[in-house]
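Handover notes (outgoing to incoming on-call)

Open items:
1. SDR family oxidoreductase: sequence verified, structure written out, both below. Nothing else pending on this one.
2. Nothing else urgent.
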Amino acid sequence: MDLGLQHKVAIVTGGSEGIGRATARALGLAGARVVICARRADVLAKAMHELSSETGSEVLAMPVDVREPADVLRLVDGVMARLGRIDILVNNAGTSAAAAFESLTDDAWQDDLDLKLFAALRLTRLAIPHMRAVGGGSIVNLLNIGARQPAAGSMPSTVSRAAGLALTKALSKELAPDKIRVNAVLIGLVKSAQHDRKRKDGVDRERYYADMARQRQVPLGRVGEAEEAADLIAFLSSARAAFITGAAINFDGGASAVP
Ligand SMILES: NC(=O)c1ccc[n+]([C@@H]2O[C@H](COP(=O)([O-])OP(=O)(O)OC[C@H]3O[C@@H](n4cnc5c(N)ncnc54)[C@H](OP(=O)(O)O)[C@@H]3O)[C@@H](O)[C@H]2O)c1
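SDR family oxidoreductase structure tokens:
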């Protein structure tokens, strides 16, 4: 399927590892020029070089902490200065944060909201005028199935993600007249760097993920691949999904009871 992404410009936050890196690859393979950002400059630079050679598309990298308003502004200004347009924004940067409610300090709440909510809304606000200027665009927000089905001990993440879901739905209505589509992908369990880092030395990676799927009782019996999530995100970002906005799609192997 031709996704029609040639000459489009995409920003993928957290594009150096995991789902973000796989998404940058899928968009690049479909012909888009891609800008990835993350905090660790060495990991980011390595990803940029690998993605450039793997995709044959232009891939740029900017060290950015998406929690910092000045960094986010520098990112958008940098993309416009270097590539001159923004068509696609994938708000992906994030990591799990789940603890008992009474153990959470104001700082822990603020940090999670800064990473998962304020980063996305600030970046979206800055990207909108540039998307309008090119006649439309696509925003995909990465969330968690807990946004619709929050469990005990799942905060602050599920609260930040529920806010991201509301942001997605409300913005999709507000921006539809400008042909800017806003969708969300609700992740269940997907193989990525954040899970790999928790794997103990000597434990086989496939065994580790098979045990995880069993413990979390994923109906399809496995953990998702980052590349599979990336295919969905690339599709939602593309003209093939031109009639889809305000959708929040579970990517969870059937784990969530709430569709
Ligand atoms: N994998 C899952 O099972 C799962 C489940 C539910 C939700 N999700 C969500 O899906 C998204 C991707 O997760 P993943 O598992 O692929 O994560 P990952 O493998 O840990 O990759 C996270 C990426 O985000 C970047 N990042 C983290 N904090 C950042 C910050 N403050 N500013 C800029 N970049 C930042 C990381 O680079 P640096 O560390 O160098 O900044 C890295 O590139 C996240 O929003 C996550 O919450 C994932």
